[in-house]
Q: What sequence folds into this?
């Protein structure tokens, strides 16, 4: 006798696993915002920019069934916007000169 699929046996767990890439990205963005709140704005914003780039890579590599709500539009548009925003944020933050003491 074959077991029913996970989404039939445990729908909540299956839904949570499907959203795992988005949850990891949001948790890491939250960690970056915490770093910004603690006064290290440059490091926190670089973390957020790198998370956006990582989310773009996940959207590019994972199938639609596994990527959850990271899939909003077509794959090309999602990857373009996520990677573009991540690169833009990271480059802008790293090009802002530090104040001289």
A:
């Amino acid at each position: 006798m074959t077991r029913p699929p996970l989404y039939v046996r445990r729908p909540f767990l299956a839904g949570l696993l499907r959203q795992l890439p988005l949850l990891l990205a949001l948790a890491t963005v939250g960690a970056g915002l915490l770093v910004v709140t603690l006064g290290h704005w440059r490091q926190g914003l670089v973390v957020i920019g790198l998370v956006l780039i990582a989310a773009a890579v996940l959207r590019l590599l994972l199938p639609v069934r596994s990527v959850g709500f990271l899939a909003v539009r077509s794959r090309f548009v999602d990857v373009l916007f996520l990677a573009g925003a991540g690169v833009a944020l990271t480059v802008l933050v790293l090009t802002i000169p530090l104040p001289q003491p």
